[in-house]
Amino acid sequence: MNKILITLFLIFLIPLTVMAQFPYVGIQNSQRKGMINVMMNPAELNNISRTVEVQFFSANAAFGNNVLTLSETLKNRNDLWNKMMEKANQPINGNTDISVIIPSFGIKTGKWAFSLISQAQSRATILGLNPDLGRYVTENEENFDIIGLSLNNPNNQRANTATWLESGVGIGREIWNSPKSKFSVGTNFKLLFPTGYTNIGVGNLTGTLAVNRNEVALTDAKGVINFSYNKNLVDVRNFNLNYDNLSLGKMNGAGFDIGFNYQLKNNRGVWLNTGMVIRNIGKLKFGGGQNNQTFRMSIPEGEVFRIDLLEPDFKAIERAFLESGYFSRESNQDGFTVGLPTVWAANTDLKLTEKLFVSVYGQTFIQNKNNNLQIPALNLIAVTPSAIFGKFEVYSPWGYYDITGFTGGLGFRYGGFFIGSQSVMTALVDQSKKADLQVGLSWGFGKKTNGNF
């Protein structure tokens, strides 16, 4: 039996929720307002620290799961799957997110502010894997006796990856600015350059998974199965990504953010900074080369569909579905539209003393995560205390995330350079199930513009 194929297939038969859009929590709450703040809330464009702000580069990478700590992951990296199956007592979740900001800048003139921002984003997530089911599938060479697992998963179950570049302009405007308060609005309008989108989902699944020694099959089963993939990027013969064919692609989609910012001031400057934003409104359009197929499964009681006989080849699986008589193809598209990971977010930054500050940031996904043509996003809330000593700032984000739960991190900024992590503190005491790193360099030119903190 092809254990890797069966494992992949069964992963997509378990309830999944795919999370993405990993934000720059920590440095995003820094009292030095730059282009990262603008990307998180375009109304912050009116609060940039200098007349001109340039983000030379910034990168953000995160990996996490809900079963193994970071040290366990590193220790068992050569046998990671079996270790996760052994330890898990709940559905297994995991994700990887990478984003890179390429040179971007903002400029403020009077009550108006403008920006040019570009960012590349890529993420992959599989969540909700039943560990008992995983054990039966990957250890079936042990010749189990006959086992029947009842499946009843009404939600759509998904595995999802997405990669794209976004580049656009931002506009900010001060509505009022008095000695006691300031209110600003802003928007980022983004042109989108999609590279690839992969989704495998199973919705409304009911039935029985039958394991009989070295055979694995479905019986008395119903469900809806979706395949979406880039035929040029995904090697359909073995499910691997073929990076030789990776290309940027043409502009094919648009999105925007809209944000609001309110500040309270006293004779020493701003002491409260709050904001609200709806981010990533829009769609990515994938043209020729992107295949999207939906099958309806109906396997009668007493009849079986052998999963272990499937080959690691998308075309072969589609052919086996249709030839079995248990699957009918409901749709077959060459090209489709995908929703961006839209979130509602809010933040509050409070000045406690001349050197000490605390910030709160939260976001929630506001689209339908069960839609196969929707890039989901994560929900989180984080508190970040920080201290500033001249040009040097130290901050420590502590948050709760959908996948990895509670994490604590540490970061440092000197001028426009920063390096930090949202999970290093909990990793040091072997409590973190996440590893991440944020690094970047920005620079301000001209006079100070915001009197911020």
Please characterize this protein's 3D structure.
The protein has 453 residues and is mostly beta strands. The chain has a single domain (3-448), classed as Beta Barrel (Porin), CATH 2.40.160. Helix content is 12%, strand content 59%. It has helices at 3-11, 35-40, 70-75, 80-87, 131-138, 314-324, 424-428, and strands spanning 50-65, 92-109, 112-129, 144-153, 157-177, 181-213, 215-230, 234-235, 240-241, 253-266, 269-306, 327-339, 343-351, 356-365, 380-389, 392-395, 398-401, 405-408, 410-414, 417-421, 434-448. The strands form two sheets. It has a 19-stranded antiparallel sheet that branches. A hairpin with a 2-residue loop joins strand 2 (92-109) and strand 3 (112-129). The protein starts with a helix and ends in a 5-residue tail after the last strand. Mean pLDDT is 84; it is low at 1-21 and 235-246.
